[in-house]
Amino acid sequence: MNKSHDLPALGRMDLNLFRVFEVIYRERSLTRAAAVLHVSQSAVSHALARLRTHFGDPLFQREGRGVSPTALAMRLAPGILDSLARLQQSLGQLQDFDPEQAQRSFTLNLPEQLEPTILPPLLQQLRPYGPGIRLRTASVRWSELKLELAAGRVDMAIEIARPVDATLRQLQLLEESLCVVVPAEFEGELTAHRYLAAEHIAVASWRRGLSFEDLALARLGHSRQVVQRCQNYQAASLVVAQGSGCLLTMARQHAELINAPLGNRLMALPLPLPRMGLNLYWHEDAELDPANQWLRGQLLGLAQNSSNGVLAPSPV
């Protein structure tokens, strides 16, 4: 073997450097690695310099705004990542979590429009465990969610089902059918042609990006005219009730919950759009964390006791 690649004895290495290697390898960025590790970028650079000295190799080279692994780093990575994962699993199995005695604050990422239907029943489910269990919600962009989960700033997330890489775990919580909310004075049949020709309200937490129904329509080769955007379905339903002439597409059970007092009518969606799946996501590092496992179990219990897509606390 080339002398520059003679690997150092394990006993002469700071094992914390392997964790730095892992995060840089996964994130492909020193800046993001620093955020995950809760240290400064200069600390990550210093650790990387020590790794380079140990291995006699650059390990990571600049590429665009990030870094890419060298051939040696690619050879080292599988063994290092597997060993760290096994160590994390071993440590996780030694821990206990007693929700009635614990003092633990969880952060659950939720799109703003889902909070009214998910947060109240979840808080009701957790209330018997006492004041030591606290829950706060956040609304982080999907593009930033992986980093927030890896850094531990978010414990888990409930989002519309979508593909993820191997560092995130996911489990389906619910599937909801869609309906169309129309004002009380709406007359006649809601055909596909009438639906596509109408003006629509879209609900999204962010200024850009398509809603679930717009993406589903695009897959069918259709598009619609969105003239109003709202951040939550309560506001959107009020706009429908005020005679805007706009249609609102949303999950049926949520629609039934908030539109009955407003006098709006619910009609069947005249196009074959799929049911909207809601998944639970968490980072692989939290897979065996007892506290994370417990909260996942509480959410799954809510989902299993749900009726047609509405979360309901487990019966006492």
Automatic annotation (TrEMBL):
Entry keyword set: DNA-binding, Transcription, Transcription regulation
Top-level taxon of the source organism: Bacteria
Molecular function as annotated in GO: DNA binding; DNA-binding transcription factor activity
InterPro entries named in the record: LysR-type_TF (IPR050389), LysR_HTH_N (IPR000847), LysR_subst-bd (IPR005119), WH-like_DNA-bd_sf (IPR036388), WH_DNA-bd_sf (IPR036390), YidZ_PBP2 (IPR037402)
Gene3D superfamilies given in the database record: Periplasmic binding protein-like II, Winged helix-like DNA-binding domain superfamily/Winged helix DNA-binding domain
UniProt domain HTH lysR-type: residue ranges: 13-70
Alphabetized PANTHER family for the sequence: HTH-TYPE TRANSCRIPTIONAL REGULATOR LEUO-RELATED, TRANSCRIPTIONAL REGULATORY PROTEIN
Family: Belongs to the LysR transcriptional regulatory family.
Protein name (record): Transcriptional regulator, LysR family
Record organism: Halopseudomonas salegens
